[in-house]
Amino acid sequence: MFNFIKQTLAVTMLNLRTIPQRLGSSGVAIVGIAGVVIVLVSVLSIAQGFAAAMEASGSPVRALVMRSGADSEMTSGLSGAEVDLIKQAPGLRREGQTPVASAELYVIIDIPKISTDTSANVPMRGIQPQATTVREEFSIAEGRMFNFGTNEVIVGRGAVVNFKGLTVGSTIVSGQNKWQVVGLFETDGSIAETEIWCDARVLQGVYRRGNSYQSLLARLDSSESFNTFRDWLTANPQVNVQVRREEEYYAQQSRALTSLIQTVGYGIAVLMGIGAVFGAILTMYTAVSTRSREIATLRALGFNTTSVVVSVLAESLALAAIGGLIGGVLAYVAFNGYQTSTMNFSTFSQVAFAFQVTPQLLGMGLFYALAMGLVGGLFPALRAARLPIPSALREL
Amino acid sequence: MKFFPLLWSSLWRKKIRTIFTLLAVFIAFLLFGLLMTIRTAFSFGVEIAGLDRLVLIHKVSLIMPLPLSYQERLRATEGVEVVSHQSWFGGVYQDPSNFFAQMVVEPEPFMKIYPEFTISPEHVKAWMSDRQGAIVGVDLMRRFNWKVGDRIPIVGTIWQPKQGQVWDFNIAGTYDGEAGVDKTQFFFRYDYLNENRAQGDGLVGWYVVKIADPSQAQQMAAKFDSMFANSSAETKTTTEKGFVEGFAKQMGDIGAIMIAILVAVLFTMLLVAANTMAQSVRERTSEVGVLKTLGFSNTSILVLVLSESVLIAVLGGTLGLALAWAIVQNGDPTNGMLPIFMLPTRDVWAGAGMILLLGIIAGAWPAVNAMNLKITDALRRA
Lengths: 396, 382
Description:
The complex is a heterodimer.
Chain A: H1 2-17, H2 23-55, E1 62-67, E2 78-79, H3 80-86, E3 94-95, E4 98-99, E5 101-112, E6 119-127, H4 131-134, E7 139-143, E8 152-156, H5 157-162, E9 171-174, E10 177-186, E11 196-199, H6 200-206, E12 212-213, E13 215-219, H7 226-235, E14 241-245, H8 246-290, H9 292-300, H10 305-335, E15 339-344, E16 349-354, H11 359-386, H12 389-394
Chain B: H1 4-11, H2 15-41, E1 53-58, E2 66-67, H3 70-75, E3 80-88, E4 102-105, H4 107-113, H5 121-129, E5 133-137, H6 138-144, E6 151-155, E7 166-175, E8 186-189, H7 190-196, E9 203-204, E10 206-211, H8 217-227, E11 235-239, H9 240-250, H10 254-283, H11 285-293, H12 298-329, H13 345-372, H14 375-381
Parallel strand pairs in B: 4-8, 5-7
Antiparallel strand pairs in B: 1-10, 1-11, 2-9, 3-4, 3-10, 5-8, 6-7
Helix pairs in contact in B: 1-12, 2-10, 2-12, 2-13, 10-13, 11-14, 12-13
C-alpha cells in the first residue's frame, strides 16, 4: 500500500513538474476553463445582485395595500376616501394618534441614463410624511429631507449613480415642471434607492391624479398582526383592495427577471463547459501522447497503471484549479459591485443594483472548474494506462 | 480537389483528437447561434421598426396619457400620411404569469400604418363588425391553443370596466408576418375600451404617425413637439426605430454582454483548434518531408495544411450553427418574455465568416511551419 502511494506521488510530481515544458497546450486548458468560470460567475452575479436588491426591499412587518386586481403599484389606484379608511384598520401601528402608514403615488419620469444617454423610465414616488417612519432603514446621506408642499425632491443613491442630473443642488426639468433636488437618501441598498421621492400631494397635482393614490404602505404592530389587518380590509365592503406582505410583493416582482437571467446564465455556462471539457480532453491527450514513451518506460520499470491514471488526473485537476482560480479572481475584480440598472418588467421602471460576486458563486465556479478537469482528464488517463508497452516504446 | 482523399485520411489519422476538435468547434458555433438569438430578442424588433413612422409620447413619461383631440391636429399637418393611436392595456389573462401585450388601437389607421402585419380580408371584415373583436398574433394563438371565435376574458389592471373587472373579447382573426415581426400581441378596438371604461374617457397612450418623406423625420418631429408645446400635455417625438432602441437600452446593454461572452468563447476555441493543428502537423513532420521529396511544392503543402484546418472548422461549425437554427425554430422557451425569437440571416452569414476565419487562423502557424520545413531536416527528425 505504502509503495503504491509512493509510486503515485512520484509519477504525479513528475507530471506536475513537467507542466512548464508543455506550456502551450496546458495554457489552452487553463484559459478555456478560466473563460467558462468568468462567464458563469459574472452572469450569475447579475441575477444575484438583482435578487439581493429586491430582497432587501421587503420587510415582514410592512404590508402593501393595492386595489384588488392590480398586479403592481403602477396599475393600482386608491381613492382618498379609501386611504382614510385603510388607515383605521386594526393591526396597523400607531404612534400617538397617527397611523404609521404612507399612501403613495408611483409614477415614471423620463430621465437619461448615464451609460447609454437615452431616456429611461425612472420611478418617482409621492410620499406622505409618515413614509420615513414606515421605512425604518431610511436615512438621509447628503443634504436634507424635502419640505412637504414644495417642488423639492430627494433622490436615492442608486438613481444618482445611474441617471443624469440628479445630484444634490440640481434641478430636474420634466415637461413644464421643475423639481429641486435637496437631498440624497439610502435604504440599505433596497429598490427604493432607484426612486425619486417627493410630496404625494404635489405629485397628484402634477400628474392630474385628483385626490387619489396608488398604494399604501403600512407598518404593522408586529409580523403576526398581518392577518388581522388583511382580513379586516378584505371583509370591508367599502374598500376594494388586496393586502400583501411587502416581501412577497417584491419577491414576486423579481421572479421573472431573476429566472430569465439564471436560465440564460446556466445555459451558456453548461454549453461553454462542455466546450471547455473538450478543450481539456484535447490538452490531456496531447500531454499523454507526447509522453507515451515516458509513460511506457515507467510502466516497463514496474510502476503500476493506477499510479499512472492518478497522475494524469492530478495534472488535469491542477490545470483546472489554476483556471478556476484565475477565472474567479478576474470575475470578482471586474464585476463585484459593478453598478447598473435594468427595467423591471412588472412596472416598466428602472431598478438600480450592483453585481454581487458572492463566496458561494466563487465556490461554485471552482467546483465547476474541477468537475471539468476531472471529466477532461479521465479518458486520456485511461488511454495512458492502456498503452501497450512495446509499441509505445517504439513511438517517436 | 484530387488531394481530397489525402486530406480526409490525414484528418482521421487520430480519430479521437479530430472528433473532440470537431465537438469543440461545434459547441462554439452552437453558442454563437444562440447568443445572437438572445441579442436579437432583446433588441425588441429594432430591425423592422419603420423609419417613416414617428412615435409621439407624453414628454413627462410614457405612462402619461395624451388627449384624443391631438389626432385631428396631427392629421391636418402637411406631410402626414396616417395617424394612429395606441394604448397599453396591461390586463391579466387567467394568471399574471400568462403575460402578453394587449394593445388598444383603431382598426383602420392601425392596419394602414403597419403593413407588416398580414390579416386576411375575412378577418378584417369580422374585426370591423365586432366591437369586442380582437386580432391576435399567430404565435400567441398557438401558445394558448386559441381558435378564431373564442371568447377571451381579460381582467383589467389599469382600466376597469364600468361594472366588474373583466373585459370580454372575441377573437375576430389572426395576424401573421415575416420573421422578426412580433406575433405575440393582442390588438383590440379603442371604441370598445373608451365606451366601457369607468374613467379616462378620451385618453390614448401614444400616437404613431406615418410621414410621407422619411428624410424629413427630424423636422417633422420638431414640428409636432412645437405644435403641442406649452399645452397641458407636451409631447416628445422620436422615430419608431429610436423609440424601440431606447426601450431596448433600458434593459441594459444585453448586446454588449452577449458579444463579450462570444469573444471569450471563440478565442478559447481558436486556441484549442490551433493547438491541435500544431500538434497534428508536428507529428507528421516526416510525412511532410516525404511529400516534398515526391515533388509537392511549398504552396501546395501550405494549402493542404490550411485546408485540413478549415475542413475541421467548417464541419464542426456548420453543424453547430444548424443545430442552433433548429433550436430557435422551436420558438421562445420563456413563455412570452422574448417575443422576437429568431436567428437573423445576417448573423448566420457572420457565423459562416467566423467559421472560415477560425479555420484559417488556427491552421496558419502550422501551415507556414510545414511550408518552410527543409526536406533534409524533416526526414532526419523522424
